[in-house]
Every structure is written in structure tokens, then in C-alpha cells.
Amino acid sequence: MAQLYFYYSAMNAGKSTALLQSSYNYQERGMRTVVYTAEIDDRFGAGKVSSRIGLSSPAKLFN
């Protein structure tokens, strides 16, 4: 069964970077991942999660 994890921390703690790295690692092992972002968050473009170090991934929107 799939699992859902919530990570929370202060700003600039690397949450987005950790998310994108984990997603990449799962995909490398042949597993499917889904990344979600809030519909109102369009800082880097709608439907996209980005980190300060330049990693990015398409994401499904929720409201």
C-alpha cells in the first residue's frame, strides 16, 4: 500500500530539495511518484516545484 509522508520545517531548511531528491531516487528504482503543489503557488510557474539549488519537477495542482 502507498504511504503519504508530511515534512515540515523552517524556511530554507531544504524541504523542496529533499522532496525532489526522494522522488528522483524512487523513479530510478522503477517506482512511480506524484508531486503536488498548491494552486496558488505560482512562484516558479504553475504546476511546478523548484528548489533554490535549481532542481525542479512538474507537479499536480490542488486547491
From TrEMBL:
GO biological process, one term: DNA biosynthetic process
Keyword Protease found: no
Keywords in alphabetical order: ATP-binding, DNA synthesis, Kinase, Nucleotide-binding, Transferase
Protein name in the entry: thymidine kinase
Catalytic activity, EC: 2.7.1.21
Transferase in keyword set: yes
A GO molecular function held by the record: ATP binding
Top-level taxon of origin: Bacteria
Name of one Pfam family that matches: TK
Family: Belongs to the thymidine kinase family.
InterPro entries per record: P-loop_NTPase, Thymidine_kinase
